[in-house]
Design goal:
By secondary structure, this protein is α/β, with parallel strands linked by helices. Helices cover 42% and strands 17% of the residues. The protein is globular, with a radius of gyration of 17 Å. The protein binds D-glutamic acid (DGL).
Length: 238
């Protein structure tokens, strides 16, 4: 059981950024990754459809004997993690939420949150902003239409065109101090995004997910005690 893998899922390659952050902290664990490319993007899905998708991904990972499941997707977490926890009460889930707390804790005045439509419009995101925002701070919440899909193609030209379309309308880009990468695909285009916000620090939820995973595994005595680097297995739906 301790050797059983940590399951990680997303709509495609984005969640690999989370797997890497967790792997850095817990190198000896085994990992099984499921990228549901067939259902990419999650960000524009209706809630009823997204619920079915996340349940199927969970079942897939349970069949691979996952001892814990990381929802490596901000959209799926903000919109469906409570539903998942109710549907699979015996499973421990770790979610990935936009790093709004981390951004507000920097004390910066001008914060920009970039995410999918699903995340940007979710009540959980609104709640996170209200819980963490301090006097004098603004958190501008911008859905980036089509960006996760563009990143999924790995086509540099498509990614740049999309960034131009989404970001050129944002005023005072030079004034932005912190940009929250609120979708797990976005760190894969970090260097390109940085160019649009030259003075900003870019933050994401990877480290938070890694720390939370370690804490939960320790508390439930499920940490892998092996002294060797664990393995990774990747599966993608077509
Ligand atoms: N990477 C996911 C997220 O963090 C989903 C992107 C998408 O498929 O729309 O939101």
């Amino acid at each position: 059981m301790l050797d059983a893998p940590i399951g990680v899922f997303d709509s495609g390659i984005g969640g690999i950024t989370i797997l890497q952050a967790v792997r850095d902290l817990l190198p000896n664990e085994n990992y099984v990754y499921y990228g549901d490319s067939r259902n990419c993007p999650f960000g524009t899905k209706k809630l009823s459809e997204l619920k079915q998708i996340v349940c199927a991904a969970t079942e897939f990972l349970l069949k691979k004997q996952a001892k814990l499941i990381i929802v490596a997707c901000n959209t799926a977490t903000t919109r469906t993690i409570e539903y998942l926890r109710k549907s699979f009460p015996e499973v421990q889930f770790i979610g990935t939420e936009p790093a709004i707390k981390l951004a507000c804790d920097t004390g910066a005045s001008n914060i920009l949150l970039l995410s999918t439509e699903g995340t940007a419009h979710s009540s959980r995101t609104q709640e996170l902003i209200e819980e963490n925002i301090r006097p004098g701070q603004t958190v501008e919440n911008i859905p980036c239409l089509g960006l996760a899909e563009a990143i999924e193609t790995r086509d540099e030209k498509k990614i740049l065109e999309n960034l131009m379309k989404n970001f050129s309308k944002i005023e005072d880009r030079e004034e932005i101090e912190v940009v929250i990468l609120g979708c797990t695909h976005y760190p894969l285009a970090k260097a390109e995004i940085q160019k649009f916000f030259p003075k900003a620090r870019l933050v994401d939820g990877g480290i938070g997910v890694a720390k939370q995973t370690k804490k939960v595994l320790e508390a439930s005595k499920l940490l892998n005690k092996n002294n060797v680097r664990g393995k990774e297995e990747y599966f993608f739906s077509k």
